[in-house]
Amino acid sequence: MTLKGHEGSVSQCAFNKFERLYATCSWDKNVLLYDATTGSFRREGPTILPKVHEGSVAACHMSNNGKLLVTGGYDLRVVLWDLEAMTHKIILRGHADWINDVCMTSDDKWIVSVSSDCEIRLWHIANCDNRLVMDNSKLLKIVNCHRCGKNFSSNKIKRDESEATPAAPAVLLCVFCRMEQKQTVAPTHTYSLDDYDQPAFNEAILHK
Predict the structure, then answer these.
(1) I need a labelling partner for 147 at 20 to 30 A (CA). Which of 45, 102, 158, 185 fits?
(2) Is the Cβ–Cβ distance between 40 and 58 less than 8 Å?
(3) Tens of pLDDT, residues 41-56
(4) What pLDDT digit, counting tens, does each position of 109-138 carry?
(5) Kind and range of the H or E element at 180?
(6) Of 61, 9, 10, 4, whose CA–CA distance to 34 is shortest?
(7) Predicted TM-score (pTM) above 0.70
């Protein structure tokens, strides 16, 4: 199957978990959708989403259920799309340089964007005006998550040393374990993922 429609270099392709809906983005500033279930693109061509990006679109990623799409471009914008309404939901701003890649977490609740400004931003889809920021301009060090045992990198670890004691030390958790933690059962001490008042969270989201 050959998908056609772009007039410039195709930068990325994304699809839902059923592999029946495809999205592509390109240097021609367009984001195209191909529905393999109906095959209508063979007769009518792909669906062209409204042109929201003002520059080349570098990356795209689709939610597992195929209802949401996130794109990032050289116009410094991260755009969240509603694929049922075929329109954009919100434009996320904050990066100071080209967006190189975007993705959504497996539960479709978070957007991760990476940029040439040396920042990784984590956006909560339900509250997209608030984002966590990791500044990668300093030397990172590798630390170990106390829950899953995976390594992640950080250049400034936030601790609540005033409350930590030898009997109840501060707990080092990676960002994914903190997202899964919810708030139903809070550990004795942990770093706050919900501290949106800080301008920079300064933690890498490298999870091997």
Answers:
(1) 102
(2) no
(3) 666 668 888 888 988 9
(4) 899 999 999 999 989 888 765 555 544 444
(5) helix 175-181
(6) 4
(7) no
